[in-house]
Specification:
3 domains; seven-stranded mixed beta sheet; alpha+beta; Arc Repressor Mutant, subunit A; binds adenosine-5'-triphosphate; 14 strands; binds biotin
Length: 325
C-alpha cells in the first residue's frame, strides 16, 4: 500500500487530499494517514497543508522495498516480488533460502558476507555499491545457465554505456572492467531438479560510491564515482540493467543460445584477441583468446595452434598485458 501512496503523491503536481487517496485506493483515511506517517519516518519529506492534503518534496533518492516494488512494476510482469535489506549476509544466500517459485528481486545496501566466484569475498561495505540478486525460474537445462551470466554482463555493459557513456568491457566470464579494473562482478548459482533448473540465482555487485579501495583492491577495483565523478542514482542504474536484462532474457528463451548477441558480446570483450593466462586447478596455461562462442565458451589457441574451449567454471583468466582495448 505504501508504494501505491508514493505513486499517487508522485503523480500529483501539487497537493492530494487524504480523502482522494482513500477513495482511489479503497482504504480508510486513517490508513492513508498511517502510511504517510511511516513514509515520513523513512525519510520522505511530505508536507501536509490543511484543506489541501499532502505534497511530496522529494529531493533525495530512497531505496527501500516500496521503491523496488514501483520499479519492478514499471518493468512489466517479469518480477512478482522485491525485497530490500539495509544489511544482509549475502543477497545470493538469501535468494537461495526462498523456497517459493516467484521471480524475485533482492537488493541490499550492505553485505556482511558478499561472495564472489570460487568462494572469494566481495567487498560490500555500507552504501558503497549495488548488491542485487535476481531469483528466477527459467525453463532451461543446468548446462544453459552459463549463458545467463553472459546476458547479465551484456545487460550491465549496455546500461553503463547508455547512462554514463563509459568504455566498460566484459572480462570473460563474469566481470565488468574499466581500463582493466573491476567495476562489477556477477555470481550465477542454481539449484536443479532432474536435468532442469529449479532456481537460478544471478547476483551482481557494482562499485558505485567508493572514493578509494584499500589492500589488494587498490589496483584491482574501481567505482563508478571514480570514473564519472558524478552523483549516481542507484535506482536508475538498477532499472536500466533490469530493463536490458529482461529484453535479452526474453530473446534467449526463444533462441536458447547467444548467437543473436554474439557480435556484441565479442566486441565488448576485454580478453578476445589477447594473450591470456588461464588458471585451472592451480595450473597455468598460456593461450591466445580467439572468440566467445554462442554457448558462452571462450575459444582459445595454444602455442601449437590447437583450438581449445574454456568452460565457465573453475577457470580464471589473467591478461598478460592489461585488459583495456
Ligand atoms: P576470475 O573471475 O578471473 O576467476 P577474479 O580475481 O576476478 O578472477 P572473482 O571470483 O571473479 O575473481 O572475484 C572475486 C575477487 O574480486 C576477489 O578475490 C577480490 O580480489 C575482488 N573483489 C572483491 N570485492 C571487490 C569489489 N567490490 N570490487 C572489485 N573487485 C573486488
Ligand atoms: C565475482 O566477481 O566473483 C562475483 C561477485 C558477485 C557479487 C554479488 S553482490 C550481490 C550478490 N551477493 C553476493 O554475495 N554476491 C553477489
Amino acid at each position: 500500500m505504501k508504494e501505491k501512496i508514493l505513486g499517487l503523491l508522485r503523480n500529483t503536481e501539487n497537493y492530494i487530499s487524504g480523502e482522494k487517496m482513500s477513495s482511489v485506493l479503497g482504504v480508510s483515511r486513517t490508513a492513508v494517514w498511517k502510511h504517510i506517517k511511516a513514509l515520513k519516518q523513512q525519510g520522505y519529506q511530505i508536507e501536509s497543508k490543511s484543506g489541501y492534503g499532502y505534497h511530496l518534496i522529494d529531493e533525495k533518492e530512497h531505496i527501500n522495498k516500496e521503491e523496488l516494488k514501483i520499479l519492478i512494476h514499471q518493468l512489466g510482469d517479469f518480477f512478482t516480488d522485491a525485497e530490500y535489506f539495509d544489511k544482509i549476509d549475502s543477497t545470493n544466500v538469501y535468494a537461495k533460502s526462498l523456497k517459493h517459485r516467484m521471480n524475485t528481486l533482492i537488493v541490499a545496501n550492505e553485505q556482511s558476507m558478499g561472495r564472489g566466484r570460487l568462494g572469494r569475498d566481495w567487498e560490500s561495505g555500507s552504501g558503497h555499491g549495488i548488491y542485487m540478486t535476481l531469483k528466477i525460474h527459467p525453463d532451461l537445462m543446468p548446462s544453459e545457465a552459463v549463458n545467463m551470466t553472459q546476458i547479465m554482463a551484456l545487460a550491465t555493459i549496455r546500461a553503463l554505456r547508455k547512462l554514463y557513456d563509459i568504455e566498460v568491457l566484459i572480462k570473460w566470464p563474469n566481470d565488468i572492467v574499466f581500463k582493466g579494473k573491476k567495476i562489477a562482478g556477477i555470481l550465477t548459482e542454481m539449484t536443479t531438479e532432474i536435468n532442469q533448473i529449479d532456481q537460478l540465482i544471478i547476483g551482481i555487485g557494482i562499485n558505485i560510491n567508493q572514493d578509494v579501495f584499500i589492500g589488494e583492491l587498490e589496483y584491482k577495483a574501481i567505482s563508478l564515482k571514480q570514473i564519472t565523478d558524478k552523483e549516481i542514482s542507484k535506482l536508475t542504474l538498477i532499472k536500466q540493467i533490469l530493463f536490458e536484462f529482461i529484453e535479452l532474457y526474453n530473446e534467449f528463451i526463444i533462441h536458447r543460445n547467444l548467437e543473436y548477441v554474439i557480435d556484441e558480446i565479442n566486441n565488448y570483450s576485454s580478453v578476445v584477441g589477447k594473450e591470456i593466462i588461464a588458471i585451472d586447478k592451480g595450473k597455468t596455461y598460456n593461450y591466445k583468446a580467439e572468440y566467445i562462442d554462442k554457448d558462452g565458451r571462450l575459444i582459445v589457441r595454444d602455442d601449437k595452434g590447437q583450438y581449445k574451449e574454456l568452460l565457465f567454471g573453475e577457470i580464471s583468466v589473467r591478461s598478460k598485458d592489461g585488459y583495456s582495448k
